[in-house]
Amino acid sequence: MSHATTTITPPATAAPTTTAVAGPPATRFGRDTGLVLVRELRPVVRDPFSLVFGLVQPLFFLALFGPLLVGSLGGTDVLGGDVWLWFVPAILVMTTLFGTSGTGANLQIEITSGSHERMLVTPMSRSAMLVGRALKEVVPVAAQGLVVVLVMLPFGMRPNPVGVLLTLGQLAVLGVGVGAFSYALALAVRQQEWMFWAVQQTVLFPLMLLSGMLLPLETGPAWMRAVSYADPLRYVVDAARELFAGDLASATVWRGWLAAVLTAAAGLAVGVRAMRRSVG
Predict the structure, then answer these.
(1) CB-CB neighbours of 199 under 10 Å
(2) Which of 19, 55, 243, 259 could cross-link 163 (Cys pair, CB 3.0–4.6 Å)?
(3) What is the number of domains present in the chain?
């Protein structure tokens, strides 16, 4: 898995102009967030091919890795019965993880071009800048997730429709947090692109493997199962599998929501702090 699939947003020619508007802070925050979200989505709308290209890796995993699971563990109870209901939710989490964790590269381009500094001199809320950018990454991830589910229906996968929607909602929350962490990393390393990708991949792959995303943790050593409990992705992956199977309110699902919300809260806290410090 490489960072080549990251959607790179071309640097904007000018920062959006806005004036301070009297009103409740929540209203101003929502307005500023919407402005940033629209600004960030414009390149995606103009070049939708990036959404199609982002589907290549998850579809390859389904086509090449999925049959290996079917052949090796499909006849056992390790995967809980339906292999695709076990594997496809994990692929959606993986798509979210790789799609949002590399978004800081967009910010590095804007830092180099000076677009980020022009944004900072506007009266926009720094929190709204970060949240708007992070929400932008949720839109393509949700679209790609729906396509993956639709592609798998002819192969016999029958997920719970409500569970699919709840999974996408949970992944949206997770994606906001991961995206915020990615932006904070980009602000920390500034124009050192190699450092950004080195840290991103060093952190990403252990989290992915310890979540039981690709192979069941039940078959791993005891130390790996113990360490996996510290990985928030494990709870999100387990929750997605139960939601796809139709168990919408189990303790596992609630733990997944808690892990996603805590990740989002921590990411936004770190990201907003980094955004405010970048002013100086």
Answers:
(1) 16
(2) 243
(3) 1
